[in-house]
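Entry 12.
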Amino acid sequence: MKERIKRSLISIAGPNTRVIENPKSIEKKRKKIFIDTVNSIKGINLRANEMHLEYGINLFYYEDAHYQVIEELLIQLYGYEVAKVIFWWVYDVEDPKNIDYKVKDEKSGKEYIVRTTTQLYNAMKKIKLFNLK
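Predicted 3D structure (C-alpha cells):
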C-alpha cells in the first residue's frame, strides 16, 4: 500500500488506527511484479537474439554479467526451483502460443500447459513452488 494513502487514512481515523493491506491485493501485486519481470527479461533476451541474427552483433558476452546479477536476484527472491522455471521460460521457450510447453508437478506427476507468463505463474502457484514469506 502506498505510504501516502496509509498516512491519509491514519490522519482521518486517528493515530491508534492500524492500516493493513488486503491479502488479495498483496497477491495481485506479487503476480503483476512476477509477470512484468519475466516478460521484461524475456524481451531483453529476444532483442539480443534478434541483434545477433539480423546484424551479426553478439551481445551475449557483454550482457552476461547483467544476466548473472538478474539470475542471482531471482534465486534470492523466489528460490531456486522457481528461478529454474523462469530461466527455462526465458531462454528455452521460443513460441509458447503455437507449441504446448508444460510445467510438471514432480510430486503428483500432473502437467500444466503454459502459453503465457500468467499461466506460468498460476501453474507454479498450483505446484506450490513459491517460497512466500
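Annotation: The CA atoms of residues 13 and 19 lie 10 Å apart. The chain has a mean pLDDT of 89.
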